[in-house]
């Protein structure tokens, strides 16, 4: 038996999965409001929409995590109601979540069996099942040894194990929730190749993303959500006008997402002199002026985040130092850095950043509060409250109020809270590691606007980004890194996509 039953799609345009009038409410929030959606076998169906639009909630309905208060779900014309995740798995639905649900300490084989009913299979059967699954992955071009512990695999390979689990259960519907956010360019290409292969085998694929390039590269059709409603399904992606798509998502046209505002550069502010440490292969030197946004472009693993950590005192320098306004700064810890006026907004905000059960306001004010109490101020709750309201409005953070637990916000909205936390600090140099990852296009424009504001107020911003269009669209200057060293420093006027990519690729 092949796990990947090569059933041809029932018919070119018939829906394999059909949702009608799905409504999901949480206290005070209607996450999905009468959503209807049809997904065909043999298509990759993109889902787009603002942070908090209801995309992940829809996937949780499919996976049996959320039970809708109204609406119906049909698979091949047969009605289903998933009372739990088991029911959804048995019906052939698999979800690849962004945070992978695997256990790092266990082996690949153990992880594959995770969630299978115990004793349903004999040991021999189990082994055969695992082997068949890995053979399927191998056929898709992914070689993985079942005895490897998961922690030794890259994020991309771990994702393949999740896909393997879907294959093992012979899932006919596979949904991905922003799967590329922690993948390198090469891993992303590989994932796309595999998703297309799964589609061509006649599976129905749902693909949630904020990135237009991914829709172009992968999706056959795309549906846009806004405020819990399905706004429009575009039946063809080829030649789809971006402006139409953005307008459907945000509810208003955004002519230029980047909205670049040129400004004169001021005095020298930050200087890295021969900085060396973990993740770098050569001492790094560069400078940033007041009013400058310096982009750091490179492939994942080029050493950009590592360089930021050195400047932030979060990693130990083995040589070199940092000067701020011509004075050498002690950077033995992030605490030193913040005190000196340097802040890092880390790449992995979800893991490093939030206290899930605390409120939006508490999360937002965490570092500001540290700052005030250390400076000997009493907590100023009124100031805190107005700051919270300010950022909720500015970044359009979708939350009932400042008192809502941050863990119940959508992924992108949690990111916005963490970002505002740093903007609220009295900081001179902002180190931003992938500041718009997972953030929708409307809020992105707001964030860029905020960065320009910081620069106009005489601050320096160092922005690490793997999004080429973003780096070119937002930065005044672009430093390119490759394999742990700085290989270029290019003014905006001279930066072209081809040139940047050529410099960033390993030799
Ligand atoms: N368990 C929950 N309790 C309360 N509210 C929730 C819960 N889960 C989701 N919500 C709310 O439902 C709405 C939709 O959230 P959802 O996670 O589906 O958005 P999303 O489209 O996936 O956004 P993002 O692009 O940011 O990931 C949000 O307002 C969110 O705060
Ligand atoms: Mg989501």
Give your account of this protein's structure:
With 507 residues, this protein is of the alpha/beta class. It folds into 2 domains: 16-250, P-loop containing nucleotide triphosphate hydrolases (Rossmann fold, 3-Layer(aba) Sandwich), CATH 3.40.50; 268-341 and 427-504, P-loop containing nucleotide triphosphate hydrolases (Rossmann fold, 3-Layer(aba) Sandwich), CATH 3.40.50.300. Helices cover 35% and strands 24% of the residues. Bound molecules: adenosine-5'-triphosphate (ATP) and magnesium ion (MG). Magnesium ion binds at residues 55-56, 410-411.
Under the CATH scheme, which architecture of the largest domain would be assigned? 3-Layer(aba) Sandwich
Rg from C-alpha positions?
Answer: 24 Å
Mean pLDDT: 86
Q: Helix tally?
A: 17
Query: Strand order within the widest sheet?
Result: 6-7-8-3-9-10
> In the CATH hierarchy, what is the class of the largest domain?
Alpha Beta
- Helix content class: 25-40%
Strand content: 15-25%
Number of DSSP E strands: 20
Which ligands occur here?
Answer: adenosine-5'-triphosphate, magnesium ion
CATH superfamily of the largest domain: P-loop containing nucleotide triphosphate hydrolases
Structural class: alpha/beta
Label the overall shape: globular
CATH fold annotation of the largest domain: Rossmann fold
Keywords: ATP-binding, Cell inner membrane, Cell membrane, Membrane, Nucleotide-binding, Repeat, Sugar transport, Translocase, Transport
GO molecular function: ATP binding
Protein name: Arabinose import ATP-binding protein AraG
Domain ABC transporter: 17-252, 252-506
